[in-house]
Amino acid sequence: MRIAYVTETFPPEINGVSLTAERTVRHLCGSGHAVQLIRPRRPDEGPRRDADEWRCGGGPIPMYPELRFGWATPAGLRALWRREGLPDLVHATTPGPLGWAALKAARAEGIPTSADFRTNFHAYCGHYGLGWFEPVVLGYLRRLHAMASGNFVPTPELARQLSARGFERLHVLGRGVDARRFAPERRDPWLRREWRVGEEHRVMLYVGRLAAEKNAGLALQTFERLSARRPGLRMVVVGDGPMRARLERAHPSARFVGMQTGLELARHYASADVFLFPSLTDTFGNVTLEALASGLAVAAFDTGAAGLHVRDGVNGCLAPPCDGLDAADAFLDAATRALDASAPDGLLRLEARRTAREADWDGVLRRFEQQLQRLATAGRSVPRYAAVA
Questions:
Q1: Which range marks the domain in which residue 306 is found?
Q2: How far, in whole angstroms, is CA 284 from its chain's centroid?
Q3: For the domain that residue 126 is a member of, what is the CATH number?
Q4: Strands 113-116 and 203-207, how do they pair?
Q5: pTM of the model
Q6: Which of 23, 16, 93, 96 has the alpha carbon at shortest distance from 60?
Q7: Which of 233, 208, 206, 231 is nearest to 220 (CA)?
Q8: 3-state SS assignment for residue 53
Q9: Are residues 197 and 267 in the same domain?
Q10: 165 in a domain, yes or no?
Q11: Can you list the residues of the chain whose pLDDT is less than 50?
Q12: Backbone angle region of 241, left / alpha / beta, with phi > 0 → left and psi within -120 to 50 → alpha
């Protein structure tokens, strides 16, 4: 099968969408499919436009300058596909201008399409003083996904929410975790010494972008409230973002270590004891599965990956999704219970590891591949060669 895989983020950019996109492309190629990767060209790259990859134009995203949006016209994409061979299916993994153009071009050519719903961009508006703009963003996302023959969402919860808002043709496809890379065996006493903690101390960990929509401040506030009554408690923050300097000033006792990747990231997970995931906007949150695989006591809101994989009090601790002071108190309760159950050989942490081992990437990607094949077979039609602006 020939697949045009369209994404506006890809390594070396580090985020859940880019890393999942790379893993997916690698799986599809390894399964014998011909994948044409279409993505924005980074400033340090040369141009490329062939059957395997098109690096199109683009620019930095205003609120995320380290990420880029792609720019192409439907006509340009149609010309590329006619020259290199029409794909059997076009898959858009991000909803930016490039994803829109690709879906529009595919429809004009009669090519089956699919799309991922990975990010609640409309929910970000309120975190940046643009709450009035949320209906506009939601309307754009609904129109974009209406062009797809099938839309993949990571949880049944999100499928219900989107269905209620008029999204159609939704297919639930979870995420996986590399349980060999993220494992309790990566625990490193030398790293803990660098953090100035001994085995008698407990380390709380946050991993993610330091931005308003991630609610990172709540993780640090929770640590401060707990450390006031739990001497010896430590906090390590992995990640970067626009709020880092402000959070470092507000929480000088926390240790900020910046972005970590690969085995270094796995070492940081395994060397901690409690994982705090305070986001209420993530559609999934891959870091939750990584923390479970590392055998940490997870505290999170009952949504996304935590809502799907965590059983409260069994393999992690959940707080009901809520706002304001209620959210702070609910999350504090979950974090307190996680801390109480954070002995390295405790049953909760052992169960967390067991749960993550069941979330196998190979199975997830095989199901994705099968769904793409079904969509391609069901959606084939005679190409239409009408002009597209």
A1: 184-357
A2: 6
A3: 3.40.50.2000
A4: unpaired
A5: 0.88
A6: 96
A7: 206
A8: strand
A9: yes
A10: yes
A11: 122, 124-125, 127-128, 132-133, 381-389
A12: left
